[in-house]
């Protein structure tokens, strides 16, 4: 088969590799029908994630068709059309028993395209298939479902649920990439009074408006602090979210929150940020961090099926499965191309 193989920082190739085979009784093999690229894949290609070693097939998001299952798989059958989640779950360890699949101690967690071969391939081996896939309900497209492999559960769980968004809240989201946009969409489920999206790219701010932001702010040329304080009697936002992954945006998220408010960090950080405890010790803040668990994916599937969440506008570019070079290029130059999520699809069988 063909797969997108990582060959060290800055190097990748769509090349011939051996097809995956069942290794454990709990594995399934899935033919990839649709797959996307994550901002985290760009971090890997920059060399920011050293656990990813040369030879690794990238990708942790897919929708596909099951072609083989191990003898211990109970609920997934050959021919099933499934979502392959970015998080794999053993189902038995203390964290999986508590629904914290991202922290799995039994060989799961974020492993696809990280510690084992991933989904940017014609076929992928999915460990713990019963716990790590979700059936695609009739009527939902591969593209809609693909948005639930990573970005929607991430923003919902690590941003909105950790941030405890409540009716009437003012919510400020720093960063309007796919993760920030998914945070806007899923925050709306909890009826905040205002969602303020902050970014430095006009194309992203336009996308934030479409996703349901009430106010968009370009922090390069507008004073975010004044705008947020103006809306909140000078206090600051009830909830702020960091969806970029750099020190200055984390520090901004702290500056924008009101006393007693919640700051939910979603971004993956590669450098330390300064926590001004000398200013905030008195403010009763709750600051959360997290890796997605995907324990809200079944709920999000129901919300997609009922039309309460529509993730399809996130897909801006479409390619064939063999066009990874081109798709990565368009995705990496998002500020010029306007790319949000790019989808690569296999030919229909
Ligand atoms: N915690 C998790 O489980 C998890 C899961 C997936 C992704 N992530 C992380 O979430 C972050 C966002 O992901 P994404 O795919 O949306 O990334 P992205 O790079 O597409 O989007 C980041 C956005 O931030 C904006 N930005 C850059 N500098 C800024 C600044 N100084 N002020 C305001 N905005 C600025 C960019 O214009 C861009 O629109 C990344 O760090 C990603 O690795 C975390
Ligand atoms: Zn991801
Ligand atoms: Zn586990």
From TrEMBL:
Residues 8-344 form the Enoyl reductase (ER) domain. CDD domains: FDH_like_ADH2 (cd08286). Keywords: Metal-binding, Oxidoreductase, Zinc. Gene3D superfamilies: Medium-chain alcohol dehydrogenases, catalytic domain, NAD(P)-binding Rossmann-like Domain. Pfam families: ADH_N, ADH_zinc_N. Belongs to the zinc-containing alcohol dehydrogenase family. This is Zinc-dependent alcohol dehydrogenase family protein. The lineage of its organism: Bacteria, Bacillati, Actinomycetota, Actinomycetes, Mycobacteriales.
């Amino acid at each position: 088969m063909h797969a997108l193989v990582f060959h060290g920082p800055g190097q990748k190739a769509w090349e011939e590799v051996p097809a995956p085979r069942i290794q454990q009784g709990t594995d399934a093999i899935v033919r990839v029908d649709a797959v996307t690229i994550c901002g985290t894949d760009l971090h890997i290609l920059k060399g920011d994630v050293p656990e990813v070693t040369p030879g690794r097939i990238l990708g942790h998001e897919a929708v596909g068709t099951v072609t083989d299952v191990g003898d211990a798989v109970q609920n997934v059958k050959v021919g099933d059309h499934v979502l392959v989640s970015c998080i794999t779950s053993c189902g038995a360890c203390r964290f999986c028993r508590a629904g914290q699949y991202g922290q799995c101690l039994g060989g799961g967690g974020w492993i696809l395209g990280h510690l084992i071969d991933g989904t940017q391939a014609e076929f992928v081996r999915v460990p713990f298939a019963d716990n790590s896939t979700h059936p695609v309900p009739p009527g939902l497209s591969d593209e809609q479902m693909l948005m639930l492999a990573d970005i929607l559960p991430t923003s919902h769980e690590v941003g909105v649920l950790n941030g405890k968004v409540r009716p009437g809240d003012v919510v400020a989201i720093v960063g309007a990439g796919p993760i920030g946009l998914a945070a806007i969409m899923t925050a709306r489920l909890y009826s905040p009074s205002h969602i303020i999206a902050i970014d430095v790219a006009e194309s992203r701010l336009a996308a934030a408006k479409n996703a349901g932001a009430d106010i968009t702010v370009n922090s390069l040329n507008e004073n975010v602090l004044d705008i947020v304080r103006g809306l909140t009697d000078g206090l600051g936002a009830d909830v702020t979210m960091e969806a970029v992954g750099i020190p200055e945006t984390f520090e901004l998220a702290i500056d924008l929150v009101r006393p007693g408010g919640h700051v939910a960090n979603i971004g993956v950080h590669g450098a330390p940020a300064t926590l001004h405890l000398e200013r905030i010790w008195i403010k009763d803040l709750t600051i959360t961090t997290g890796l997605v668990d995907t324990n809200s994916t079944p709920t999000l599937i129901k919300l997609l099926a009922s039309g309460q969440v529509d993730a399809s506008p996130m897909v801006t570019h479409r390619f064939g499965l063999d066009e990874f070079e081109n798709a990565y290029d368009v995705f990496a130059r998002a500020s010029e191309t306007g790319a949000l999520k790019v989808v690569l699809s296999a030919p229909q069988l």
